[in-house]
């Protein structure tokens, strides 16, 4: 168990991170706690959170707006990589962790802290993501995780906080644990822990139930430049505005819900419900545009690394050497991935119904079966002879 004089604590305003403040001071002898709340577009009013940290004993309470950086430098690289963890989850929560780790390390340097801290427990993925990312950015910094070590139940944690002057949280009717940011929401606990039970409608906020979606299709065009989303329906948009608007369009049409059994890094399977309207659509649209603009061998090779890339983000290896090297490959692959993809939203579906690019490798005159066909059909016989030669030789040898 580490000790420190001055600590920068990742702070959300919840029970655990609030109790971390007096716990670090009284139990671990920390002299000064600086809290840092990250604005990731989660929609919370952060001024009350800042004030709550001060009331809980923090010497300094910081709030940092990193929404634009979050989308530009974390979400959009994941789009370029078509990063779906286990081919379903677009990593909306996992992508926030390396950014939070980065601003924690930066704040520690600015304030002369000798440690950083977080409120993660020993059961989830986030403890790994924070610890490993912080170690990659500054291996000399101590990382403290009080909630992983204090061994208190939820009720005991609340009681400890009350003893230290932290008000008991208002009782909520919702039994769910929810993590949210601009990219989406992750919902677990309560009835969701029964993998057989359908998720009740009250867990969803960003996406409408199918019955409440429009009765006519909604068409949306997404523009990309070198793999990066840059506009909707002919209008150039900054990254935050683009994700915000696409969240609304897709969510209004019931698109972006995920219900999956997920393999956590610590070896536990968990039932997770996600709402990720914009990210799910952006990755599917980007993948389709690649099929139009990249050669077959590059497309196929890139598909082979996408699961590795997604798994590295999920497992907290954003700052690892392999991730950096894969980024270089992915960036190179995106030089020609510019164009527009048309999406048809209707009753919970997002169908790709059109795509175009000045870099398109699709040649209608070669593909057509009409009289405009320019393909040399006679060339096919020689191609097949050469292509099939290894198979013929094997067959002749095998059959003696």
UniProtKB/TrEMBL annotation:
EC number: 6.3.4.5
Subcellular localization(s) per the UniProt record: Cytoplasm
Arginosuccinate synthase-like N-terminal domain location: 6-167
Binding-site positions, L-citrulline: 89, 125, 129, 177, 262, 274
Binding site for L-aspartate: 121, 125-126
SUPFAM superfamilies, sorted: Adenine nucleotide alpha hydrolases-like (SSF52402), Argininosuccinate synthetase, C-terminal domain (SSF69864)
Main subcellular location: cytoplasm
EC top class named in words: ligase
Catalytic activity: L-citrulline + L-aspartate + ATP = 2-(N(omega)-L-arginino)succinate + AMP + diphosphate + H(+)
Biological-process GO terms, alphabetical: argininosuccinate metabolic process; L-arginine biosynthetic process; urea cycle
Alphabetized GO MF terms: argininosuccinate synthase activity; ATP binding
Any coiled-coil regions, as ranges: none
Positions contributing to ATP binding: 10-18, 38, 119
Record has Cytoplasm as a keyword: yes
Arginosuccinate synthase C-terminal domain mapped to chain residues: 176-394
Transmembrane portions of the chain: none
Protein keywords: Amino-acid biosynthesis, Arginine biosynthesis, ATP-binding, Cytoplasm, Ligase, Nucleotide-binding
Family assignment from sequence similarity: Belongs to the argininosuccinate synthase family. Type 1 subfamily.
Subunit note: Homotetramer.
Entries under HAMAP family matching the protein: Arg_succ_synth_type1 (MF_00005)
Database matches in NCBIfam families: argG, PRK00509.1
Name under which the protein is recorded: Argininosuccinate synthase
Organism per entry: Tumidithrix elongata BACA0141
Gene coding for it: argG
